[in-house]
Write a structure and sequence with these properties.
This protein has helices at 7-21, 99-114, and strands at 25-27, 31-34, 43-44, 53-62, 68-74, 78-85, 88-92. It is 27% helix and 34% strand. The protein has one domain (7-114). It contains 2 helices and 7 strands; from the N terminus they run αβββββββα. It is globular, with a radius of gyration of 14 Å.
Length: 115
């Protein structure tokens, strides 16, 4: 896979947003998938155990509601986004070419879910 997005930089940029999102939702830990690991590639919240980050994922759950959100950002320039909102399932696959684009996609998707 072509590595267009530095997932470590993206994770650092997301930290202030995560603090803000925690006011209205429970934010799960950041999770990483290791491209260099044997198949099936493990997914772990322990970044130090990942040699070559292939994806960065996180979840949100609105306080006092059943609404759930999951986003996985891939270093190749896209994200898989799924959320359950008012008993409806929504799926998106934004594409981007760099960290700035990935960050904008994360903020846009989370903002849409939390609105």
């Amino acid at each position: 896979m072509e590595h267009l997005v530095d997932l470590d930089v993206l994770a650092d940029r997301m930290r202030s947003g995560i603090e803000e999102w925690n006011y209205v939702a429970s934010v799960g830990p950041l999770t990483w998938r290791d491209e260099a690991a044997a198949w099936p590639h493990p997914i772990t919240p322990d970044r130090s155990s990942v040699q070559v980050p292939e994806s960065l994922g996180f979840t949100l759950r609105k306080h006092a509601l059943d609404d759930e959100f999951e986003m996985v950002v891939w270093t190749g320039g896209w994200a898989d986004v799924d959320y359950l909102l008012d008993d409806e399932v929504y799926t998106f696959c934004p594409e981007f070419r760099d960290v700035d684009g990935a960050y904008r996609a994360v903020v846009k998707q989370v903002t849409g879910f939390l609105a």
